[in-house]
# Entry
Amino acid sequence: MMHFEAEEWSDSARNVACDVRQVAMQRHLETGCKPCTETIGHWEKVANAAAAEASRQPALESARTVQSAFTTVGLAARRQETGCFIELLFDSFSQPRPAGTRSAAMRIRQMLYRVEPYQIDLHIELKPEQNRLVVTGQLVNLTHPEMVGRDVQVMLSDGREYIVNTVTNQFGEFLGEVNNSGDLEISFLGRKGKPIVILLRGPLHPSSAAKE
# Structure
């Protein structure tokens, strides 16, 4: 009795063998060949498991959690590579707001950083209808206060996959718009070409304006 090879039974289980071969193999199984019946049974289990794995999709929230974890690790690693000390001089979110103006104020965040050789002035505004952030900034060269950081390449990211590249103008100003994902990353090159990375978590949320 002629037996078929394991590779042939694998093709049969995955329905990729030619029609003539499939007919011949089916007739062979009908003779009651025990070894070949066990072999095809094994490969059918493998094929079924592979098909089930391919169709299985994780919950969207779980996927976002894992993606966020890997993104956070990547951002942390990049911050460690900068070797730059970033000092926060001012954050409007840490200042008390007069009653009656809090709802409007929550849509705008102003921040001031210092990292050699720059002072970075940031203005972040929420566009709630699109859930996007408009980021305006200015770089001032502290080494030469009369000079601004012009022609500096600045990258804005939502901490996921959306990235905007821009360049400061003659006044050291830049402007960009990203998704309000809960993470905001601003990066550019500092002294000696070392990257400067500012990472903000949850700077503005649509629900914040509605709480008060």
Remarks:
- The first helix runs from residue 6 to 13.
- The chain has five helices and nine strands.
- The chain has two domains: 6-55, 70-210.
- The two ends are 84 Å apart (CA to CA).
